[in-house]
Design goal:
Length: 285
């Protein structure tokens, strides 16, 4: 009985090791792919056909590995530079929203590897090339004033280029658009010149309006004088003149004058009026 105890202990150890190995194999025989993810199974380093979508999947233990790829929307900001149609330097920064095509994940695993490689080796350089295509179609002024058309051409070129790599572009936005200091100075000088030109046009129009107003006033005065002359020539014209003289004195703040009208019997003469109250001041006391 004493000799059986060591054998029993040894059997228990072997059984424990076997159960541990079996548990380890069982754990490594399955992989869980979460929603928004896709897996690529590699056996002995070789990527297998067929994408592992969300759920639980069997994989050969010990000799296989599953690379998980994020299928949700990825956002990266990529700088780009290019020359315009008139050979001006134009810089921009684009925010690219994209995701991986689940059907193409195996090819992406074979050709690009990780998501970081996808961004640095595919998205960034293709963004640069797409911006060159869009910028070369326009002058720098058109690139600034026709920003939406520039972005449209950029989106079209980028979608076409990234689609070949299994990358789906969802949206792009121009974060920043800048041009060379030389062009900025030229734009500033042009704006100053345009402001001066608009100011000159305004002054010219104002002078023209003032001249027209003076002409209108002169015409009005001439017409008033003509009408007054006709009134004086007509019957009762002397009374009109006397009334205007009295009103003029009143507007000047003087008291109602004692008016002396001298014209004799000659009706064609213009009546002469003066204030008798001013005689003392004139030295006729």
């Amino acid at each position: 009985m004493k000799r059986a105890e060591p054998q029993t202990g040894l059997t228990s150890i072997i059984l424990g090791i076997a159960l541990a190995i079996l548990a380890l194999i069982s754990v490594n025989s399955f992989v869980i792919v979460n929603p928004g993810q896709a897996g690529v199974l590699s056996i002995l380093g070789k990527a297998q056909d067929g994408v592992l979508l969300e759920g639980i999947h069997f994989k050969p233990p010990l000799v296989s590995n599953v690379d998980i790829y994020d299928l949700t929307v990825q956002k990266f900001e990529v700088p780009a530079q290019s020359s315009t149609k008139d050979l001006q330097q134009l810089s921009a920064s684009f925010a690219i929203n994209f995701r991986l095509d689940p059907v193409q994940v195996v090819r992406i695993r074979r050709e690009q590897g990780t998501l970081q490689n996808v961004v640095s080796k595919v998205v960034a350089p293709q963004t640069q090339e797409s911006f060159k295509i869009a910028a070369a179609k326009r002058t720098i002024e058109e690139a600034i004033t026709q920003r939406e058309l520039l972005k449209s051409d950029f989106d079209e070129a980028l979608n076409e280029r990234l689609d070949k790599y299994g990358i789906i572009v969802l949206d792009t936005s121009v974060v920043d658009l800048a041009f060379s200091p030389e062009f900025a100075k030229a734009v500033e000088e042009k704006q100053i010149a345009e402001q001066r030109a608009r100011r000159a046009v305004y002054i010219a129009k104002e002078a023209e309006q003032q001249a027209q107003a003076d002409i209108n006033r002169a015409k009005g005065t001439a017409e008033a004088q003509r009408l007054l002359a006709e009134t004086l020539k007509a019957t009762g014209g002397q009374l009109v003149l006397q009334k205007e003289a009295i009103e003029a004195w009143e507007k000047g703040g003087a008291q109602m004058p004692k008016v002396l009208i001298l014209n004799g019997d000659n009706k064609s003469m213009v009546p002469f009026l003066f204030n008798l109250g001013n005689l003392p001041e004139m030295g006729y006391e």
